[in-house]
Amino acid sequence: MRVMAFALTSCLIGAYMPELAHASETLSAQSILKRATAQLALPPRTVAVELQMRGIRYSPEQARDPATAVAEIGAQQSVLWANDGHYRLKTDTHYPGNIEFRFLTIGSRDGEATVDPMHWREGIEILRDPADQARSDGADLLLLSPALLLNDAMAHETVANSGADGVTVTYDDDAKRAVKLTIEPVRAQVVAAEVDKDRYTYADYRVQEKLSQPSHVQRFRNGQRIADWTAVSARPLTTIPPAAFQLPDGYVEKQSRGALRATDLGHGAWRVDGTPSGYHTGFVVGERSIAVFDAPVGVEEARQVKALIQRAAPGKPIAYVVVSHVHGDHVAGLPVYVGDGVQVLAGARAGIALRRQFGDKVDLHLQEITRARELDLGHTKVVVYPLTSTHASTMLVGYAPQARTLFQGDLFYLPEVGPIPPAFEGGKELAGLIAQQKLAVDHIVGVHGRSGDAGDLAESIRLQYPGNRSGTL
């Protein structure tokens, strides 16, 4: 009887061993989570946290050299996150040619608004996004600071488990996305976080004003690194400046661009307006054929633009597509145009980048232009000029002499709404070409923003930004 009782007891204990082990692991995971939460707790009376970040963004198909697949873009940003969910993001990035982007975003769970403090890309218009986008963007900012992230996690229902990589903590954030944190058990530090296709890693923790923050934060998407913040600092705030979450004066609500349409510039020159992306394709129509300038954004928009061109010039084939330069946003629509003898004209060594972007499945009938070339469209001509540019070594500029119209991409910018902004390096490069070739110019059609004239270009150069504008945001 005693033997049978012992055997029965042993069986019962064996049956419950996995559950007991799981309970032990859960208890251990909870204790490590508790330690991490204590280490990353916000200091008393903290109402907001401010981050200052410097590093590099990795931007595919945006390098000056076509052989470079991913450009390293110098970047800095500041984040202000308040306990009530309001946030402010200031970003500053520098692309080839000393082209600088600055944006200011103010947001909350109810929506967000973005403006361009430099007034060149978006002019003086306010870009607004609805609540779902704002909640997603706001939740992304929390991923830059494990203290904020863990604080957010503890405000939701969390599940903590031990695993080979440490303790994992999962929860659903305000954007209804599944977030997974990984905590290294010995130091009880958050070392990684994952959400959707993104993974963040954290290293080199430092305590600043009683707030623990990793000074090195990396972001990966689908396994590819897209940001490397190598100098990150955090500061807890006990008060928030009154205007911290207000847009500055001088901005207006974004205006409708109207329906997709072709605007006649005269003497066979046209500009496409009203695209979903806001990009402008140019084209010139002769008696026999058409030359198109750039194929922006993607195949769906390019299909719409191609159909519009064919309606504007019925029965006339597209003979050429001139690529201003091989950055991805300017060529993504090329597959729509190829075939039927269409020739793609691009700058020297452009084929390196185009083959990388499109592979062997798309036959572009590419011709690389290394000296000025005249295109005869039938009693209408276009001259294509290669241009040495600091923005892209594959730069081409098109000129329609009868229309006195010049077509360019990323050299000279005028916003759709707003004053003439100071030029970057490309403005001087374009003006140099115009002077050297003695071109008479009434219209300068850019892929971005409204069209201008030679006087606008001259004023932009007069206002030109200094070469180095980096500073504290």
TrEMBL record:
All residue ranges annotated as the Metallo-beta-lactamase domain in the record: 278-448
Pfam families: Lactamase_B
Signal sequence coordinates: 1-23
Superkingdom of the source species: Bacteria
Keyword rRNA-binding carried by entry: no
Record has Methyltransferase as a keyword: no
Keywords: Signal
Name of the featured protein: Metallo-beta-lactamase superfamily protein
Species this protein is from: Luteibacter rhizovicinus
